[in-house]
Design brief:
This protein is an alpha+beta fold and 374 residues long. It contains 10 helices and 14 strands. Strands 1, 2, 6, 7, 8, 10, 11 and 14 form an 8-stranded antiparallel sheet that branches. A 6-stranded antiparallel sheet has the order 4-3-5-9-13-12, with no helix packed on it. A hairpin with a 4-residue loop joins β1 and β2. 32% of the residues are buried.
């Protein structure tokens, strides 16, 4: 019954992009928390919960921000996703879940078998999905630098994470043997909607001026809190927006009275290359890149031109209308019509020409909402 109810709620969240009330987000967050109590008993429930959370990331950023301010809904959802990995690793050595906006990876790792590992977060269509549907977000970890077996032409790399060899040796506590088994959790989010900016100027996001311009990737070792790492973790993130004043940061859920916030302490940017930024952090957590997007737009594909037939016919129409206007102006004394009719005809041709030109030049100019709504 629990799985059935969860699947019904999943259908409800498919329309999350049209949610306009914060209570919709809060309600789903509370239900995800309740479902989380049964994840250990019903294996399929974890996949449904991840899909629900993925759908919620389609909601308007303002609605998610209000739900976070009202009831820390976003933080509660992220906490539930972390618990899914903990429950499933109790009976398995490795576990992963994919969705269009969230990827989860969990592994049971023996400390003395651990070497430098690189994990990538990428998206590519699965065989059963059509090209028009969203790509699945997926994690893949490898102890070599080669990912040629999984990366194809249709693959888009969103982020990568380099975990040092000393990660688990530092996690060891006095009296524990080297063969201690740790549980490594990885979470990847397509964007930073579940980590909304606050209005606290002391945080790295500088209030609401800074926004997350990359995917957010999380790494943690269950039961171990590493404040400062001997060898830092290098994170490469793909920027999906243009901006200025880039700041590498780590999310701290305990800031601002439990609302959470971004802190830049312990993180710094190593380099920018094309639309990727590499940063280094000396602690485990949720990593992201903040930028001032107030004067910049989203990194969207270049404007696609209209079909050539539209341009051809529009130009022909404009030439015909221009010919009519010029003819009537030049021969207005010879044309025996009333002055009222003459003005009406010229104005009609002029406004048709203007409408045609605006349509041809502006129908695909959708990057600036204020211009579209004008």
């Amino acid at each position: 019954n629990v799985v059935t109810i969860a699947r019904r709620l999943l259908l409800y969240t498919i329309d999350a992009a049209n949610f306009s009330d914060k209570m919709d987000i809060i309600f789903v967050a509370e239900m995800i928390e309740k479902f989380g109590k049964f994840v250990e008993r019903f294996k399929d429930l974890g996949e449904v919960m991840v899909s629900m959370a993925s759908n919620l990331m389609l909601a308007d950023e303002r609605v998610l921000w209000m739900a976070q301010r009202e009831a820390t809904a976003c933080s509660r959802i992220v906490a539930c996703l972390q618990k899914i990995a903990a429950y499933r690793l109790a009976t398995a050595q490795a576990f992963s879940l994919t969705s269009p906006n969230i990827a989860l990876e969990a592994q049971a790792v023996r400390a003395n078998d651990w070497n430098d590992v690189t994990c990538i977060l990428f998206q590519r269509p699965t065989p059963e999905r059509t090209p028009s549907q969203d790509r699945q977000l997926t994690f893949k970890c490898n102890n070599t630098s080669s990912f040629s077996t999984i990366l194809h032409k249709s693959t888009v790399v969103e982020a990568s994470l380099q975990l040092p060899q000393s990660l688990f040796s530092q996690a060891g506590l006095p009296g524990l043997k080297d063969d201690t088994v740790y549980r490594l959790h990885l979470l990847g989010f397509r964007n930073g909607k579940f980590f909304p900016s606050t209005n606290t100027s002391l945080l790295a996001d500088g209030g609401e001026r800074m926004s997350v311009a990359t995917p957010v990737i999380m790494t943690r070792i269950k039961g171990v809190s590493l404040r400062v790492l001997k060898s830092p973790i290098n994170i490469t993130l793909r920027r999906f927006a243009h901006g200025s004043d880039a700041v590498s940061a780590c999310w701290n859920a305990s800031l601002a009275g439990g609302q959470g916030g971004w802190r830049s302490e312990g993180c710094h940017i190593l380099e920018h290359h094309n639309n990727f930024t590499t940063m280094s952090c000396n602690s485990l957590g949720n990593y992201g890149l903040l930028m001032d997007l107030s004067s910049a737009g989203q990194l969207s594909p270049s404007i696609q031109p209209l079909h050539p037939v539209i341009y051809t016919t529009s130009i022909i129409l404009l030439l015909c209308l221009l010919t009519i206007i010029i003819s009537y102006i030049y021969h207005h004394r010879s044309v025996r019509v009333s002055r009222k009719f003459w003005h009406m005809l010229v104005n009609l041709c002029f406004h048709i020409s203007l409408s045609c030109g605006v349509f041809m030049g502006g129908i695909n100019q959708t990057r600036n909402p204020s211009v579209c709504q004008a």
